[in-house]
Specification:
It is a single chain. The chain folds into two domains: 71 residues, no CATH class; 75 residues, no CATH class. The protein is 27% helix and 13% strand. It has five helices and three strands, in the order αβαββααα. Strands 1-2-3 form a three-stranded antiparallel beta sheet, with no helix packed on it. Strand 2 and strand 3 form a beta hairpin. The protein starts with a helix and ends in a 9-residue tail after the last helix. It is an enzyme of class 1 (oxidoreductase). Keywords: FAD, Flavoprotein, Monooxygenase, Oxidoreductase. This is Flavin-containing monooxygenase.
């Protein structure tokens, strides 16, 4: 959290950032029901969602439980290590983490351990990090710091 706060201060965006809030609802307002079903609206072109002037209603819950809705022009979903939504893969029978003699955990569980406990878990062990997105890079880097070296292989 200190890093995020320092980053926001460094780039003078702290006044635009809310810490300690959880997004509980996200709704696009501005396109009719028919338009929402059109593929072009969801086409993945990299353009901002709906150039026709719609807005996003983002409802956030504060630490005290109060809800507040913010109106935004643009939303970026960064659902990685801190998302609270683990992407647990399915495994073939007898080739799953239960058949593995070592520990197998999701990056979110690793992050929730806290720095000291996570470092103790990986210290002196050979660690394989499967994945190549933000969470994987974060965990691989932390393992390298604790153990001194690592090999990074992108998943196919």
């Amino acid at each position: 959290m200190e890093y995020l706060e320092a980053y926001a201060r460094r780039f003078d965006i702290l006044r635009h950032v809310r810490f300690g809030e959880k997004v509980v609802a996200l709704e696009f307002v501005g396109a009719g029901e028919e338009k929402m079903r059109e593929w072009e609206l969801w086409g993945g072109s990299g353009d901002a969602f709906d150039g026709d002037g719609g807005v996003w209603h983002v409802t956030a819950q504060r630490d005290d439980g109060a809800l507040e809705t913010h109106v935004m022009d643009f939303v970026v979903l960064c659902l990685g290590r801190f998302s609270g939504l683990p992407d647990i893969p399915t495994f073939p029978e007898k080739k799953c983490p239960a058949a593995f003699a070592g520990d197998a955990i999701h990056s979110m569980d690793y992050a929730n351990m806290g720095g000291a406990a996570a470092a103790d878990l990986v210290k002196g062990k050979r660690v394989v990090v499967v994945g190549f997105l933000k969470s994987a890079i974060d965990v691989a880097t932390e393992c390298a710091v604790v153990n001194g070296n690592y090999i990074q292989v992108p998943k196919c």
